[in-house]
Amino acid sequence: MLTLIQNDLEVPSGSLIDWCREFQIPFRTVRPYSGEVLPPIPDISALIVLGGAMGVHECSRYPYLLAVRSYIQQAVFHEIPLLGICLGGQLLADALGAPVHSQRNGELGLHLVEVLASPASDPLFLDIPQVFTTFQWHNDSFEIPAGAVCLASSPLCAHQAFRYGVNQYGLQFHPEVNSSIITSWIESSDVNLDSTRIIEDFVRAEDAYTAVSRKLLENFLRIANLLH
Asked: Is residue 228 part of a domain?
């Protein structure tokens, strides 16, 4: 079964759930921050690790992150198809031994991301434009792990996506958000933001953003052999 790990109450699965239902993919969401136990690795067919306001290095404040990191390492060892989003991508990079930097290469709002080489060269970006607009909400950033391939970049953050092995991916950008999630993040942010501009920009770009994000999830589900 597809398993989604939610690391933060304020960072839900968003549109991913709607698309899983549309594709008729059985899934479950596990919330370790509230004490829920991660399922045994043999019980999962693919894993999506969501974001969070905390950082990879804040395990003393958020001790469940240690369990999530260990779980990711097990998934890597067993070659479970994996998609890490923002904090999830940073946790994957960290589990693979790559540095994750705090307060470096941050991006907030809509930004352009470029797929390196041809989008058709990696199945995650198949039929996705080489340059696309997506939503960013991060202050930290990851380095590319040894043995992994950098797949996408942006002007402010060179490492936007990587693949490790054949089916494990880390993303820095957010393909799952909607206007409701973005509004809640803005309202809870302690950064001085032009909230009206961020929302208006997202509404203008929402159709294109949604098409790319939905296709990315569809591609991941095909990589995981959950969608044919």
From this structure: no
- Counting Cβ atoms within 10 Å, is residue 41 exposed (0-12), middle (13-18) or buried (19+)? middle
Residues designated catalytic: 86, 174, 176
**Contacting residues for 129 by C-beta, under 8 A, at least 6 apart:** 115, 119, 212
Q: Determine the straight-line distance between the first and last CA of the chain, rounded to whole angstroms.
A: 15
Residue 154 contacts by C-beta under 8 Å, 6 or more apart in sequence? 107, 111, 112, 113, 114, 136, 160, 173
178-228 pLDDT tens trace = 999 999 999 888 777 788 899 999 999 999 999 999 999 999 999 999 998
pTM of the complete model: 0.97
Q: Is residue 105 part of a domain?
A: yes
CA nearest 81: which of 42, 126, 39, 46? 46
% the chain with pLDDT above 90: 94
pLDDT tens readout for residues 45-73: 999 999 999 999 999 999 999 999 999 99
What CATH number is given to the structural domain containing 32?
Answer: 3.40.50.880
Beta-bridge mates of residue 163: 149, 169
pLDDT at 103: 92
Give residue 114's domain range.
2-223
Q: What is the pLDDT of residue 188?
A: 86
Report the number of distinct structural domains present in the chain.
1
Structure token pair of residue 143: 């380095």
